[in-house]
Design goal:
The complex is a heterodimer of chains A (274) and B (289). With 274 residues, chain A is mostly helical. In chain A, helix 2 packs across helix 11, helix 3 packs parallel to helix 6 and helix 8 crosses helix 12. Chain B has 289 residues and is mostly helical. Chain B has a single domain, classed as MetI-like fold (Orthogonal Bundle), CATH 1.10.3720. The model of chain B has no long low-confidence stretch (mean pLDDT 91). Classes of the chains: A mainly alpha (274), B mainly alpha (289).
């Protein structure tokens, strides 16, 4: 690509401004989190006497350990089950092409455009009738269900890309449908499945509205839903709110920095496919 | 073949069941509730279309719809515009390492919970926050204020949070799109004496049609269902200046016990989303052929 000098300068300047604007809110929160808990800090300032104790206070006072356990419990249920169900249905629709597969696919596509807000009210009464209100299962079931359309879409697209010669070769060798799935399609599906796992993990971890409505006790929600708890607990102390918010985002931030490529490519593909 | 159909139906069953039970069934319930007057406990009374009519007669609920439409400017137009501009410069960074670091930083708001972004920005907009600190530093302290508390500033302030979350995402997605455009097209444009603007308009934009239509869809849905950010920053206030459908539905159902009206608003929100995205999808599919 050919670039002139003036373009280069304008481009660099713009990118630098964009990068600064992106990190400033987090930096500002970080600087506030190190000020004494009972003071009102200034937007961005170098703390003369950094109060690392705020993190300790936010960690124990905010019941972060309990929260992380709850979040991990929810993620460990939602992610594998979503992957499993979507793989099975995606295989039936995209590979086996069972009778009525396009109708079935269309049935799932309907769900892609339903905003969570549209069904949250009946969901509340339904979960209540099932006696699940205020338990983690109150959001586990709806989340798996709400992720189905996208995940099936994703897995179907994967199975459509696999050339049919491979299955035919397996059939010639006398493999049963199950053996073919287990020996050939599962290993081939690993890249698609791991990308989907990243997406579903982020969506679950960051889920907010379902937790707020269906679980009264913030400590049983996923971490994002629990942020309201910190707001309630520490509304008076900006340093402590900042510290707890930073603790909450730390796990996903660390995972993101380690697996940045996988994250970015998965989420981009996710957007394109949706 | 018959055996396969049976097996296929069997392995689709778990997905069909959970999706029917926790998405389709609530959707049908929402539809049914929307024609009733119900406080959530007592008996439901059939009222026909009264709830839908009431939505359009209530200034607060109409404001809620209007606000979410205004948010499209911040959630879609700004991010896609700036995203295009930034993407155009990202792909020109020659050092691979700097290019990927820039993309990682720009992308990162996307992985944060929106609620956390909301909290970070409430602090940015606070009286002592960074925005006012900056204004004071450049001598504009007379404009310093609590941005989320002002009737005229709250909605744009909330919108900027959305722009902050989505701009980097748009930029990285578009940069990936640009790198797939045939580079000989760019060389030909330069040889023809095109400056960066005409190159941008005649090569880059047409090459990104698919990405742009995807982004319009995704960001419009984000604007119309912007519950998380509003819930942690303003809860719809001051007055109803930042009220959006998600917050209205929440309040109607769970604090005002108007379950029927809340359900009707939920159905209406779904219809608005469909009206907004179906034409985009239709147009982009058609122009692909």
């Amino acid at each position: 690509m050919i670039t002139t000098l003036s373009e280069k300068i304008i481009g660099r300047a713009l990118l630098i401004v964009a990068v600064i604007c992106t990190v400033l809110p987090i930096l500002s929160m970080f600087s506030a989190s190190l000020e004494p808990a009972d003071t009102t800090p200034l937007g961005l300032s170098w703390p003369k006497d950094p109060q690392w104790g705020n993190y300790k206070e936010a960690f124990s006072g905010g019941h972060v350990l309990e929260l992380m356990k709850s979040s991990i419990f929810i993620v460990l249920l939602v992610v594998p089950v979503t992957l499993l169900f979507a793989t099975m249905a995606g295989y039936a629709i995209g590979k086996m092409k069972i009778r009525g597969h396009s109708a079935l696919f269309f049935f799932f596509l309907l769900g892609l455009t339903i905003p969570f807000e549209s069904i949250i009210v009946p969901l509340y009464y339904q979960v209540d009738r099932l006696h699940l209100l205020n338990t983690q299962l109150a959001i586990v079931f709806p989340l798996i269900a709400l992720f189905m359309p996208f995940s099936i879409f994703w897995m179907r697209a994967h199975f459509l890309r696999i050339p049919s010669e491979i299955s035919e070769a397996a059939k010639v060798d006398g493999a049963s449908e199950f053996q073919e799935f287990r020996r050939i399609h599962m290993p081939l599906a690993i890249p698609s499945l791991s990308a989907l796992a990243v997406i579903i993990f982020i969506w679950t971890w960051n889920q907010f509205i379902l937790g707020v409505v269906l679980i009264d006790d913030p400590l049983k929600r996923t971490v994002a839903g629990a942020l309201t708890f910190f707001q309630g607990q520490y509304w008076i102390s900006i340093p402590l709110i900042s510290a707890s918010a930073l603790i909450i985002i730390a796990p996903s931030l660390i995972l993101f920095l380690i697996f940045q490529r996988k994250f970015i490519s998965s989420l981009l593909q996710g957007a394109i496919k949706a | 073949m018959k055996r396969n159909n049976l097996l296929g139906a069997l392995i689709s069953m778990p997905a069909v069941l959970i999706y029917s039970l926790f998405v389709i069934y609530p959707l049908i319930s929402a539809f049914r509730y929307s024609f009733t007057s119900w406080d959530g406990i007592g008996a439901k009374e059939f009222v026909g279309l009264a709830n839908y009519i009431q939505i359009f007669q209530s200034p607060e609920l109409v404001a809620s719809i209007k606000n979410s439409l205004s948010l499209i400017v911040f959630f879609s137009v700004f991010p896609i515009f700036f995203g295009l501009l930034l993407a155009n410069f990202i792909v020109r960074i020659r050092t691979q390492k700097i290019r990927s670091i820039t993309q990682v930083i720009l992308f990162f708001p996307q992985i944060l919970p929106l609620a956390a972004s909301g909290i970070a920005w409430s602090w940015m907009y606070a009286k002592n926050g960074l925005v006012n600190q900056f204004l004071t530093a450049v001598g504009l302290e007379k404009f310093a204020q609590s941005w989320l508390a002002g009737f005229s500033t709250a909605l744009p302030a909330v919108g900027i949070i959305g722009a902050w979350v989505l701009t980097g995402f748009c930029a990285v997605l578009l940069a990936t799109g640009i790198s797939k455009i045939d580079s000989s097209l760019y060389e030909a444009a330069r040889i023809d004496g095109a400056n960066w603007w005409s190159e941008f308009r005649n090569v880059t934009i047409p090459g990104l049609r698919q990405e742009i239509s995807v982004l319009i869809t995704v960001t419009t849905i984000a604007a119309l269902s912007s519950f998380d950010i509003i819930y942690v920053t303003t809860l719809g206030g001051p007055g109803s200046s930042t009220l959006v459908p998600g917050i209205s539905i929440y309040r109607l159902a769970f604090t005002q016990s108007s379950v029927g009206l809340a359900s009707a608003f939920g159905i209406l929100l779904m219809v608005i989303v469909l009206i907004a995205i179906v034409p985009i999808q239709f147009y982009s599919r058609r122009s692909d052929q």
